UniProtKB/TrEMBL annotation:
PANTHER family: FAD SYNTHASE (PTHR23293:SF9), FAD SYNTHETASE-RELATED FMN ADENYLYLTRANSFERASE (PTHR23293). The keyword Cytoplasm applies. In the C-terminal section; belongs to the PAPS reductase family. FAD1 subfamily. In the N-terminal section; belongs to the MoaB/Mog family. Keywords: ATP-binding, Cytoplasm, FAD, Flavoprotein, FMN, Nucleotide-binding, Nucleotidyltransferase, Transferase. It comes from Elysia marginata. The lineage of its organism: Eukaryota, Metazoa, Spiralia, Lophotrochozoa, Mollusca. This is FAD synthase. Its cofactor is Mg(2+). Residues 69-235 form the MoaB/Mog domain. It is an enzyme of class 2 (transferase).
Amino acid sequence: MNVCGIKTRSLQRLFVITGHTLGKRAMASTNGSLPNVASNDAQSSSSSKQSPLLKRSYYRAMSGQSTAGIIVIGDEILKGQTLDTNSNFICKKFFTLGVKVQKISVICDEVNTIAEEVALFSEKYTHVITSGGIGPTHDDMTFEGVAKAFGLKTEFNPDLVQRITDWFNTTDMNSPEMKMAKIPETSQLRFGIDPKTNKPSVYPLVSVRNVYMFPGIPNLLEKAFLMLGDIFQNPDVKFHTDTLYIERDEASVASIISAVANKYKDDDVVIGSYPNLTNSYYKVKITIESTNPNKVQEAHKEMMEKMPEGSVVVYDLDPLQSAVQAVYSFMENTNQDDHFIQSVQAAIRTIETALEKYALENICIGFNGGKDCTALLHLFYAVVKKKYPQFDGKLQALYIRSRCRFPEVEKFVQLSRDRYNIEMLHYDGRIKDCMEMMATDRPNIKAVIMGTRATDPYSAHLKEFSMTDPDWPQVMRINPMLHWHYKHVWQFIRQLSLPYCSLYDRGYTSLGSMDNTHPNPLLQYVDKRGILTYKPAYMLESGEHERDGRNT
Ligand SMILES: Cc1cc2nc3c(=O)[nH]c(=O)nc-3n(C[C@H](O)[C@H](O)[C@H](O)COP(=O)(O)OP(=O)(O)OC[C@H]3O[C@@H](n4cnc5c(N)ncnc54)[C@H](O)[C@@H]3O)c2cc1C
Ligand SMILES: NC(=O)C1=CN([C@@H]2O[C@H](COP(=O)(O)OP(=O)(O)OC[C@H]3O[C@@H](n4cnc5c(N)ncnc54)[C@H](O)[C@@H]3O)[C@@H](O)[C@H]2O)C=CC1
Ligand SMILES: [Co+2]
Ligand SMILES: [K+]
Ligand SMILES: [Mg+2]
C-alpha cells in the first residue's frame, strides 16, 4: 500500500472539503520547521513515517466530517491559578456547528512547545484553535510559536500596525502594544460583524493555514468566536443528541447500556454514560448522539424499553428556561379535587395580586435556602417573567443569616442567587433586628414574600397578606403558600426538577440552626453495609413530623 500516496490525496481532499484555500506557499516545502514534525509537503520525507493512526482522522475528515483540536496556552492554567473555561466554551460551540473536537491540549508559554503542538494539531485536525498568548507581554508568544510550526517568519502586518497605532496611540515599533501586530507571514486577518455596532470588528482574528489564534481573556475569546464562529460551520453534519436520566447505580445498568451501544455502533451512534453522585434526581446520565436523528430515536426507544421499570426519570436540566410554561401549566388544570393543584394555583394568584399591589422595587422574597422558599422563589420568578417578559434586572431577596448556619445552606443560597439573578440583601443576627436594619437602609422594601405555611409555629392566624405584628418593623408579609402541605412542597420541587439544598437528601426535613437541627429520625434506616443512613426528605410520609429533627 502506498502510504505516502494516501496521505497526499487525503490531505488535498481535506483542505478542499473544509474550504481551505491553501496557496502555493502554504503547500510548499516547510523548510525550517521543527525536526520530527510532519509538514504539509507531499514530498516531505516525514510522510512515509506517518503513523497509521494519523491516517484515520484524514479518512474521517474525508467522509464529510470536520474535526478540531484546541490548544490552550498559558502557564497559569498548568499551575492551577486559572481554570480553563475557554476550551469548554469552544467545545460547546463546535458541537452545534457540526464539528467534532477530538483533542484539547494545555501547554505552557514556550515557543518550541507551542510550535510542536501546533504542527501536530494542524496535521491531524481540520481546524486548530489556540487560546491565549497573543498579548503584549514577554510571556505571550503564540504568534511566534505558530510561525515556527510552519517554518514561517513573523512580520509586522501593516493593517494591524495601523489599528494598533490608532487604538493605543503609539507609533513606536518597539512598544509592547506593537508586538501584537507582529504575526506569522501569510496570516489572514478576519473581521466579524460586531453585533453592538453592526460594523466590522475593530480588532481582527489572526489565522494562518488552519490555525486560528484567539485571545485568552474569556470575554474577548467568546466575542471573537460569536462574531466569526460561522467560518467553522460544517454544512454536511448536524449532531443530534438525546439524553436519558436513570435513577439506578451505573453498574446495575451497564450491561444494558453496552448492549445498546454495541448494537448501534455501526450506525454511527455514539452512546455515553455519565454517573453523578450528588444529583437529587438521577444517578446516571446517558447521551445518545448521531448525525442521523432517526437512529438517535431508535436507540433511545430501545434503551427505554430495556431499562428496569421506573428507573428512567423525567428530569429538566434547565427548569428556569421552562419556568413560565411549567408554572402556568398548573393554571390550565381544572381538577377541583386535587389539593396540590389548587394550592399551586392559589400561590400563583397571590403572587399575581402582589405584583398588582407592589412594584418590583418595593418587593423582596424572604429566602433562607429552605425548601418552602425554594419552591416559592421559582413561582415568584415565573410570575414576574410572565408579567414582565422584557424584565432582565435582578429580583430582590432578603437573607437573614442565623448565628450557626450550615455551610450547605450557605452554598445553596449563593447558587440560587446566581441562578435566578438575585440581588441578595444580607443581614446577620436576629430576624427582628435585621428587619429594623433593612427598614433603615432599604426603605423601598414595602413587602416580603414568604414561604410560611399555616402549619408553621405561630402561623395559623396568618392571611395571604398580613402586616408584620405591631411591635415589628412594618412591612407587608405575603404568604402565597399558606395552605400548602409538606408533601405539596416536595411534589412541586421534584416535578419541576428544581435544585434544592443537599441537606434534604440526607434526611433533614426542616432546616434551622446547625446546633439544633438534625436529620429526621423517622427517615432513619440501616443500609446493606450496616450503616445508619437517612432517606431523603421527600420520602417523609406525614408533614406532622416535619420538625422532628429540630430541638426548638
Ligand atoms: C420578613 C419576616 C417578617 C417576620 N415578621 C414577623 C412578625 O411580624 N411577627 C413574628 O412573630 N414573627 C415574624 N417573623 C418571624 C417568623 O414568624 C418565623 O419565626 C421565622 O420566619 C422562622 O420561621 P421558621 O422557623 O418556620 O422557618 P421557615 O419555615 O424557614 O420560614 C418561613 C419563611 O420565612 C422566610 N424566612 C425565614 N427565615 C428567614 C431568614 N433567615 N431570612 C430570610 N427569610 C426567612 C422564608 O420565606 C421562609 O420560607 C418574620 C420573619 C421574616 C423573615
Ligand atoms: N481587543 C481585542 O480584541 C484584543 C486584545 N488583546 C490584548 O491582548 C492582551 C491579552 O491577550 P491574551 O492572549 O488574552 O493574553 P493571556 O494569554 O495572557 O491571557 C489573558 C488572561 O486570560 C486568562 N486566560 C487565559 N487562558 C484562559 C483559559 N483557557 N480559560 C480562562 N481564562 C484564560 C488568563 O488567566 C489571563 O488572565 C490584552 O492586553 C488585550 O487587551 C489581544 C487580542 C485581541
Ligand atoms: Co417552613
Ligand atoms: K500575558
Ligand atoms: Mg498567557
